Amino acid sequence: MLTGVTSQVWRGTAFGDVDSWTLTHSFRDPGDGTRAGLWLDAITNAGLVGGAVQIPQISFDSIQLANRVDAAGDGQPAMKWLRVSAVKYGTGGMLAVTYYPPDCKPGDVPSAPDSNARRCMPMKWTRQGRPPSAPTGSTSTWCSRSPSPIWCPAPSR
């Protein structure tokens, strides 16, 4: 897993560090019976020319959104996974992120996937532990797309 990046510049006889970014991750449980997903918790940046100057860390808040068009009692996991809801700057600012609401519902999905203009799409996936070649291994389902129309600065808290 990538935990950091350091940029360098050639200084005539050797490379010298310029900037570094430290990435902090976690595996957050969505609480829907599916697997924990990788989440980027924070990014810390430091300028490295003439000494180290660390910039306050940027962190990310989350919101759970449906990945799958979920029908109650269909025997498939809900797949409510995390999306970014806010970017918090260590300097006190914040960028709020909103998403379009779901466009498809159980029983209300496009009839022709190849001419689909809605915010959902057909997906085939294999349940954990079942090979794709097994008769009941591959599952077809509809998944939601969650585009974000608005990213706007929020008042400092």
Computed over alpha carbons, the radius of gyration is 21 Å
Number of strands: 9
Categorize the overall geometry: elongated
Compressed to H and E, one letter per element, the order equals EEEEEEEEE
Overall average pLDDT? 85
Q: Provide the helix percentage.
A: under 10%
Arrangement of strands in the largest sheet: 1-2-3-4-5-6-9
Instruction: Give me the secondary-structure category.
Output: mainly beta
The separation of the N and C termini measures 32 Å
Proportion of beta-strand residues: over 45%
Low-confidence spans: none
Secondary structure tally, helices: 0
List the helices and strands and how they pair.
Layout: E1 4-10, E2 15-28, E3 37-47, E4 53-66, E5 80-88, E6 94-98, E7 120-126, E8 138-144, E9 150-154
Antiparallel strand pairs: 1-2, 2-3, 3-4, 4-5, 5-6, 6-9, 7-8
Q: What can you see in these coordinates?
A:
The chain has 157 residues and is mainly beta. The protein has strands at 4-10, 15-28, 37-47, 53-66, 80-88, 94-98, 120-126, 138-144, 150-154. It has a domain at 4-102 and 147-154. The strands form two sheets. The protein has a seven-stranded antiparallel sheet with strand order 1-2-3-4-5-6-9, with no helix packed on it. Strands 7-8 form a two-stranded antiparallel ribbon. The two termini are 32 Å apart.
